[in-house]
Amino acid sequence: MRKLDCATDRFISKPQTEKKQNKTIYSSLLYKTLHGKTAEEDRKQARRIQEIKHKNKRRAEISQYPIRILDGPGLVDDFYVNILEWMPQRDVMAIALGFTIYLWDELAETSSELFTAPESKISSINFIDETRILVSHGAQTEIFNIPEEKHEKIFSFGTGRVLVSSRPGIIDEVPHFVLGTENGYLHFQDRRTAEPTLSLHAHDSEICAAKWAPHGTYLATGSNDKTAKIWDLRMGRFPTVSFADHAAAVRALDWCPARRNTIATGGGLHDKKIIVWSTVEGAVYEKTQADTQVAKLQWVPHRPTEFVTTHGGETSQTSHPVVLWKTNDLAEIARLGDHDRRVLQMGISPRLNVLSTASPNGTIKFWKIV
Fold first, then answer.
1. In three state form, how does the secondary structure of 84-146 look?
2. Least confident of 33-42, 77-86, 172-181, 346-355
3. Which DSSP category does 259 fall into?
4. Which of 80, 227, 289, 357 is most buried by its number of CB atoms within 10 A?
5. Tally of CB atoms within 10 A around 316
6. Per-residue pLDDT tens for 24-71?
7. What letters, b where the CB count within 10 A reaches 16 and e where it falls short, cover 102-136?
8. Strand partners, 300
9. Number of neighbours of residue 235 by Cβ within 10 angstroms
């Protein structure tokens, strides 16, 4: 297993003379005789102590209690829906409760009703920008204008529960969004036309996660078929990497914001692993075993060395935690107070770094993590 931290370049020194070598050996032996360990062992211990102090200090900064709890009646108990999102540049959260989307303004501490689907419960939402949101319900996906409170465009192509937007230039220099469907298809949809620009049979089962890389044109997808795949549409209709180290659905997925070609994924109930890996060749950097299924995963925007996971599992379980992790060794930094039911929805505000989590027990909790 390769370490996540990149190796630093080092100058190769000239060979030491025999006299200098003997002096170095003597100094090392003398240090060990006086201190009971070598200087290198002493330095390692000092670094370890500093890491523990830093972790304890970081843990002390984080409250295990939420700063706010809101009622969320109608929250769907479905592992595959994606119904909580924050705006890209504003601290405004959207959440779907059954048929209706509500907005929560974190700065103003106010809520408002935005949109109600006519027939089917909302299964996925995703912001295009601060003025428009993508909404999927039943067999329809639509673009809704937030300031004008009107429907801009409606598309009909199968039932999907994963929506991701793409910025212009990623696909053919035109604005697209991507819909992942229950039968494993990816539909790349030009927002100006009725028919998909491209449809791919990407997975053998339902697609339950999809996210564009922050630094490029790669799309990562996770599926109920226990795989995560990396796509580069410039290279054709086949994935560049197919990652099959999980033993359950891959719904928890996010790109590292500070390191190119690095992603973290989490497995479902029969897997429970968190893995950080390379999207170039699929090599594993770090992995760990969680207590329960990993439902959601997201890097902290202003702390790229940390990410958050939410968990859950059988209804008989009493603990459904929210956990903050250190990236480079997957050490647990803090475990926040949990929900009564599995935590299926999660997001982090872009500016205030407020973490929001939602559970089918009808509660939405807000946590201060920075």
1. EEECCCCCEEEEEECCEEEEEECCCCEEEEEEECCCCCEEEEEECCCCEEEEEECCEEEEEEC
2. 33-42
3. S
4. 357
5. 5
6. 666 766 666 766 666 676 666 655 555 554 555 565 678 889 999 999
7. bbbebeeeeeeebbebeeebbbbbbbbeeebbbbb
8. 303
9. 11
